[in-house]
Each structure stands twice: as C-alpha cells, then as structure tokens.
C-alpha cells in the first residue's frame, strides 16, 4: 500500500481537477440564477477540492520523507542523507512541487472564504443575503477556474508524481546545496501565500465586475485579503533578500536579478493596491482603480512565474528551464488576463463614479502615490524584460543592471516618501482648516532641513545617498509630527464623544493609525539601512592564513586556525577568524567562521559566509579558493546598519498585521449594535 502513495496522490490530483470544474460550474450557474441550493452544492464541492489537494500534497511529502526515489521529483531533489526539515521543504524547492503547493494554497484560502462567508451572511437581511451568496459564489467559481487551469498544467506538463520505472535509482541527486538553508523553509511559502492573496483579490475584483457593483461590505471583505497578500509578499521579498545575503557569499542584499524582480514587481503594485483601497473606502470612489490594480497585481504575479519557470533567464533563483512549461504558463496568463480585461472593459461603466476632491487633500496625495508606485513597477518590468525582447528581435545581447534600476527607482522612491510624510498630516489638518497652511509650511521646512543634513552627511558622496538620507529624515520627522498632531486631536475629540458607538470607531481608527505609522517607520528604517550599507561599506580582499590579521573599520580580524568540518550532507574547510577591538587587539569581540563546503552527493563546492551580526554593523567574511598549503583567499566586509534593512521589513509586516486584524473585530461589534434586530428577522425569514 505504501508503494502506491504516489499513484494515490496522482489520482487525487485528477479528482481535484474534476471537483474544480464541477464547483466552478455550480457556483457560476447558481450565482447567475440566484439559486442558493446550487451555490451551497458548489461550496461542498469546493471543500472536496480542498481536501483532495491537501491529501495529494501530503502524499508528495510522504514520498520525500520515505525516500521514494521511484518518484522522479523526489529522486531529482532529495537524498537519503538530507535532513528531515529539508526533505519537507524540498516539496516546494523546485518547479513541480512548488506549483502543487501554490494550487493547494489557493484551495486553502478558498476554503477559508467558504467558511467565513457563512459568518458574514448570518448578519444580513434576505436581499443582501442573496446578493452576498451570489458574490461569494462568483469568487469561489473564479478561484476554482484558476485551480483548474493550474491542475491541467500540472497533469500534462509538470506532474510531481511521475515515476522512474523500471530504472529506479538507488540514491537521489540531492537538493541543490544553495537551497539547504532555513531560507527555503520561510521564503517560498511566504511568497506563494502572497501570490495566493493576489489570486483572491483577482477573483474578488472579477466577481464585483460581473455583478456590476462593489458595496461597502464587499470592500470590507476584500480589505483583509489585500493586506494579507501585501504582508506575505513583503515577508517573501525580505526573507529572499536575507537568504541571498547569508547563503550565497556575495555579500550583497539585492542584485536586481530578473527573478528577484519577478516578486518585487507584484509587491509594488500590491502596495499601490493597499493605498487605493484606503482611497476607495474614504471617498466611495476610485472603484475602477482598485479593481484594476487587483487584476494587474495577479497578472504580474503570473508573469513573474513565467519568468522564473520558462528558462528564458539564467538565475540561481530560477525554478525550471523548460520552454514547454513556460509556454503553458504564458497560455494560462493570456487566458486569465485576457478574459479579465474583457470583463473589465464591458463592465467598467457600471462602476464609474464622479468624485470631487480638492487639489490639496489626502485623496490627491494618495492618488499621486499610487501612480508613482505603478510607474516604478513598470520601470522595473521594462528593465527586466527589455534585454529579453532585444535578444528575441535578433538585435544582439544587452545587459540591464543596477545603474539603470537605481537611476529610475531611487528618485521615484524619494517622491513616494515625500507623499508618505505629508499625506497623514493633510488628513489631520481636515479637523481644522486653519492648520492646513502651517502644516504645509512646516513640512517643506522639514524637507529643507533634511536636505541640508543630507548634504553634510553625503559630502563627497553620490546623489543616491543624498536622496536616501533626505527621504529617511523627512519621513521620520513627519511621522513624529503626525503622532503629536493626532494625539492632540484625539485628546480634544475624546471630550466631545456623544454617540454610543464612538468608542468602537475610535478604536478601529486607532489600530489602523498604529499600523500605518509602524509600516511607514519600517520604510524609513529600511531606507536608512540600504543607504548606509550601499555607501559606507568597507571591504578588503586579501590572502590570509593562521596568525595573519587585517585592520578594518576600527576592528582587527585575525585568522586563528583552519579546521575540517563534516556533516551528513557535506564536508567543509572552515576558517576561524577572531574579531578584535582596533584600540586593544587583545580584546576578542567575537568570531566568524566562513566555510568552503563540498557536498557529498554531487561534489558541488560553494562558499558559506561567516557573519557577525550586530545592530549597528555586520562583519561579513567569505572564504575563497586555497592559495597555498595554509593560505586562502578571504573577503572581509564591514557593513554598517545592514540589519536595519530586514528590521524595517519586519516593522512593515507588523504594521500591516495590526491594520488588518482589528478591523474585522471592530466591524463585528459595530454590526451587532446596528443590526441586532434586522439580523434576527432575516434569519427567521430564511428559515421559513
């Protein structure tokens, strides 16, 4: 029976494809006819779809744990000596398994929506209940259709359960050594969950377009999914950067690699979507902007998947190099995006609204920020795909590197940060129009001071350091001012609360305000870290052996000894290097231990950096080739504030989580107060 696990997984994958088709059909027909029975039947089919995909994924996990090398995917990406944690992580470590995990995650989030919509619907009157059942039916139908497309792709081009019969290898080829890191456990799942969040946003946007309306409660349903997608994409990009910094031994934290860009571009659009949702909630307008960004973010995530899996770019991050698979993903992209844009073109007029807002208002600043973020996304997209298009047209080869991306992206980031600083102040000045001009003048005064301080700090340095320093100072000072103004306004407002539900609304806005402040502070921290490490890094490349030292940035690094290290997966030559105080070379502050690793399964060699992490600086040491019997090529780097790059990302994620979670709780309390009588009568009507 155990030997049949891969076949069971394959059969379950086929069953899930059938369930996806039936669920989509039931939901679409039921939603069109407002037939609650068909919609309920489709809901049960979606649960069956989720269960079959969950069991199929568990079958693949079991095959890895059991070292079943008759499964081609296991044989190519595992080994009997591989640690258990990496065996499980290897499930999503390459193309076939990552696609199965992606499809399972879509089904998981769809099942959560299926379960949660019953809770929301219980509080509605009969008319809104039918409308919401139809809306959620369309959402689940679209998710089922996306799963159907991906399942067909898996079954016909990327089957993770394909067997190597009758020639079963005795041992597997092992997981790529670069992937044998905790980053594999954290980075891909977070990125996939972010993509799945964008898939839910795509489904919700299409459901609203097909229905021809987007009421406020549907906007509230969409909001947590937008924020969750953004949080996971932020984490996925941050952990990917941290993984490359720690594992690859290059010493950099971002390389503008095409595959890195493939996940960064959807993050930029998702950031624009978060702010567009705020704009729509505030004005009850800009609905088309929000819905279009939902479609665009999902489209770019699929485009990124095509880039990673088609083999048209060479990268250590790429999942696959099969043009057939790439064309299949491109076909799915054309079908999904083409259908979505057609529906958008046909239904857009039903959701168009005229909105009046002043030139000097938070709405204007939010809209400008959204435009700049989308422009930044397409600038990165152009730099990523231009060399590919250039080569495709037989015009030769062309390389677009960091100079282009920095020249475009840094000024755009500076403009966005200017808007991030002033927009909250403009919101608070609406409580007293007389405050508008003083706040604006103060803001420009802060900007002038930030530029002056930046010029002093960046004297003799480049424009990017000037912009980064000015942007960070501007944002931090504006956040402090926003905090002071908000505390003053809330203190005055607390003495004038006269309505029963005012404390609920105050609590809701307070949580959103805290989330916004933390996320924006995270942006400032990341900018500081990136500016510092990019402009003040010190580096030395030298020949070192036991007893030799090198002074660097106030430290002395002494090569103490060389030793051999052996694990189940690899053997390594390890250098033990002490970090000493530059003023007192007898005081040892710590050790770094870089390695040259040779993996047993495939004899692949790689350098593993030794890093002494600190709040104010990192000491980064990588070990190169052997130059003599006792000497090696050693690269030593002093990286000021490097940790701040990822600390800022954690602040962003924390801010997003705070902004996402309490809103649902507050809304539940508010609804229970406003609809206590109508909800009970609605339930009686439905029962009758």
From TrEMBL:
The chain crosses the membrane at residues 12-33, 45-66, 99-115, 135-156, 192-212, 224-244, 264-280, 287-308, 328-346, 366-389, 404-426, 438-457, 463-487, 513-534, 641-663. Signal peptide: none annotated. InterPro entries: CcmF_C (IPR032523), Cyt_c_assembly (IPR002541), Cyt_c_biogenesis (IPR003567), Cyt_c_biogenesis_CcmF (IPR003568), CytC_NO3Rdtase_biogenesis_NrfE (IPR017563). GO terms for cellular component: plasma membrane. Residues 330-660 form the Cytochrome c-type biogenesis protein CcmF C-terminal domain. It is found in: Cell inner membrane. The keyword Membrane applies. GO terms for molecular function: heme binding; heme transmembrane transporter activity; lyase activity; oxidoreductase activity. Belongs to the CcmF/CycK/Ccl1/NrfE/CcsA family. This is Cytochrome c maturation system haem lyase subunit SirE. It comes from Shewanella oneidensis (strain ATCC 700550 / JCM 31522 / CIP 106686 / LMG 19005 / NCIMB 14063 / MR-1). The gene is sirE.
